[in-house]
Amino acid sequence: MKKIIYTMLLWACFGLTAVAQQTEDGDTVCHSTTPGDTPYVDPLGNMPEDPRTGFKNVNSIQELKLQEPDTEVRLTLVYDTVLFARNNDVYVRCGVSCAAINFKDMGLNLQEGMVLFGSVVGRYVVIDGKAQFVGTENTTDQYYTVTARVDYTTPYYDWNENTQNNVVDDVVETGEVTIDSLADAAGTRRLYACKQNSTTRLLLTDKYGFCQQPIQIPAKCSGLKGILTRNGNSGELYTLTDISTVAQPLAITGLRRDDASADAHYNLAGQKVSNAYRGIIVTGNGRKIIVK
Fold this sequence. Notes:
Radius of gyration: 23 Å
Shape: elongated
Strand content: 35-45%
Largest sheet: 8 strands, mixed
């Protein structure tokens, strides 16, 4: 079983889809197939068959994101997992490639933890730079089954990499971060999470109303869970954590004038740093600067 899981992870890296097959001994194994305009073939005969024609067949969410926007397709679901469902947003992760996407306004009764097997028709769109799979008049729940309810694994966000397609729209954990605010191009102050010794920062957005109380910033946080998406060329996190329950304010605003010369630099934990430090620094005058 460990060997099978390891093999599936390798397929995820190379963007391949998989076919499940049962051996004579009763073990389930998987064989990789290359993406293409070919319907998924279920060797076990368990997949609900969609007899309708006229749709382009897409074998995975990863392949879906390669389609031309505004294309109606039939997406194969091979043990894809529902990561989060609220209102009209349902985030689903491909069971093989680990790519994920928002099933937007699909009208399907999907709940967190469901594992899906079959197919569903929808339209691939890109709205404000965000890929989505939206419902059409041909969207129905007749051609997939819910095979299980699971506690899925939440991956950690890699602060050393740029936001990549294979993790966008996935539910991630940030690990320990510092939370502070910065002004955007319009002068509006926005909340960000950043990692010590990293120039990468994530815009924090309370899209789903998890944050119930204001917080004092800057603050240290043991970790945040959220949906990773894009905001222009930067990452954005739709927080699924009430930040006020995990944030610990950092008292670095009361620097004494005799200790805080204009040339002194501090990190967000209030520790004095050298000129070689990279990330968000606080000058002796109280200004916050991003050093890349």
